[in-house]
Amino acid sequence: MVDHEVDIAAGTAVVDPHVTDRRNSPSDGVLARVRNGLAELTGALRRVAEHVLSDPEAAARSTIVELAERSGTSPATITRFCRAMGFEGYADLRLGIAAETGRARSAGWTVDIGREIQPSDPLARVLDQIMAADTRAMHDTAALLDLSEVERAAVAIAGASRVNIFGASGSALVGEEMQFSLHRIGVAAWAWSDVHEGLASAALLGVGDVALGISHTGQTRETIEMLAEAGSRGATTVALTGFPRSPLAELADIVLLTASQATTFRPDALSARHPQLVVLDLLYIAVAQRTHDRAHAAFRRTAQAVDGHKAAKGALS
Q1: How far from chain centre, in Å, is Cα 139?
Q2: 274, 283, 32, 47: which is closest to 140 by C-alpha?
């Protein structure tokens, strides 16, 4: 559904000629230009940018009307977005995205690893590049994160009888890490990546339970379905995502936002992994604080349970 009032307000609020000139640098890739300008966009223009970044190949194939429908805006908003990004019209934007995604499919070293890292670079320089990208992503996430939302999520999990964590692919690995951490402090938590098993488990949740869905783009269909099922049963739903207006964020009761520092040597989804872990570490510690006595007792029991194996390894070494 198109919101014309939001389109008009957003379209007149963000186009700055100085911003446009800066974004139109020929050295910038189209997607990097959109990503760098995301923080300066609001309303409907931001929705367009988020949609383009979440699936650039689909955006390159879309007509202006199709892109407007998929981003919930209007063709006029798409035109304003193109100008805000330094393009004369939609055709230029579309061709730029198509060229960039086409180069990505050709998968040479420069595309997959990028200009930042060369085959002959020493590992010290490679480490510096990775650390710089991760550090920027951490700082951006700290600035973006709403601590009151973390507080709400921690309180819900601390009082939950059951916590389900949903994620696919790389997000599933992050979810498993969170599930392990919560188990260590006595919280009954399960991580699900298979949609059939996840839906079955979500259907058994109820009021007082919590479901956490993890997806950087917020567009992973399986994760959305599992979180929606949990919410329909009365569970409190939490989304961990990089896009506040994504389908996953829209259906969640609580939204935890992360930022990523995408580079040519590591795509968005992988760049989001460390910021996701930082936010979940914060959430885990917040839950442990609110269940201190139970968490302390659980730490002692789990440490005692594995102590014999640690001693045996020490003797063998």
Answers
A1: 15
A2: 274
